[in-house]
């Protein structure tokens, strides 16, 4: 009789591990258990809990059952919580979420830089639901069923979880989900869409469609009808350009402290509709701007911190890596009646060739992306810059860059978590370094 290879059943390989104790949380918000085969990280578990798990990776295990829950555990209010990969912290009480975020930053600073902040200020918090003003949704059109799915990706997967509503999206965006799905389903373009972005701007919400070719006339009129019916601005992002669906559309705007700024719909804007401005106000307060003081601002975007800094009396030199954002920043300065020197540069490269690198600054503000600012901080510490406010969305790279500050005589005077991404493990923190 022929021998046929039969794989061993999955379960036989991965026998459940029962009654494991969760001893802590990692910086991605996953519970830590110590199994006979080593440490494993388990999503959706909390310190102190007893859990049954199945090991499914070299470093991970999947939760089967919580047998003794933590007092901090909540029933997640979102219907999509179990399948959607968006909010991985909804099962945690909000105060515990924020405490964990602060503890994570403290641990990273201590472990990688040997630093303790002289003062931790109470976390900055605002709306914990319907706060998010930008989201990227996945789109798939099933040609056989002629059905369009619009939703978020499942955790660690390409599968799309169809959603009709989202508890963290700003309400003007949340209300668009169903009509947008119905409108997209009618387009010839639907078959070619991979994802769509929703952004809440000051004037009206925007829908950004990434497209490869020009729209067919019927698609254009369908989208115009949708835009008018729901007071939405539709933008089309081609490979190298972004165009409004209707010629009458003005550039989108977002608010910062004391100003409204224009940007392209593809440009970065901060996530939380309220805390983005609270964060700017805190940075201004910590920098303690004096009239005509020279301030160097790095990773400036389209001027979210720059324009308020200049309005507070600083002579700001702002550096940003995207040319169109630098141009936009200059225009935002002109429209708001302030002078700013803005330059386009890759901050991962050394500064000596840059004209602005030779100027003397007394203070600096940095707001890098997750990669941090390794090179920029190396350059800052060579100069006579007394005070640095560093805003970070990645505690690991913040800790690395804090070590550079420490090695050059800077002290971490203050730190404060900004709860920019409630219901998720993502962390935003503002720090103040001073040279002693
Ligand atoms: C976290 S965003 C902050 C933007 C702005 N400060 C704000 O609050 O809207 C980081 C900014 O850094 C810019 N950036 C990222 N890497 C860069 C690099 N290597 N050199 C220069 N700019 C960079 C991005 O284009 C983005 O605008």
TrEMBL record:
Which CDD domains does the record cross-reference, listed alphabetically? Answer: AdoMet_MTases
What GO molecular functions are on record for this protein? 4 iron, 4 sulfur cluster binding; rRNA (uridine-C5-)-methyltransferase activity
Q: Where S-adenosyl-L-methionine is bound, by residue?
A: 270, 299, 320, 367
Q: Which domain of life is it from?
A: Bacteria
- Which UniProt key words apply to this protein? 4Fe-4S, Iron, Iron-sulfur, Metal-binding, Methyltransferase, S-adenosyl-L-methionine, Transferase
Q: Where is the active site?
A: 393
Q: Transferase: present as a keyword of the record?
A: yes
Q: Which Pfam families match?
A: tRNA_U5-meth_tr
Q: Note whether Heme occurs among the keywords.
A: no
Output the GO biological process annotations, alphabetical, semicolon-separated: rRNA base methylation
Please name the PANTHER family in this protein's record. 23S RRNA (URACIL(1939)-C(5))-METHYLTRANSFERASE RLMD (PTHR11061:SF49), RNA M5U METHYLTRANSFERASE (PTHR11061)
User: What protein family is recorded?
Assistant: Belongs to the class I-like SAM-binding methyltransferase superfamily. RNA M5U methyltransferase family.
Name of this protein = 23S rRNA (Uracil(1939)-C(5))-methyltransferase RlmD
Origin organism is: Pseudidiomarina donghaiensis
Q: Which gene encodes it?
A: rumA
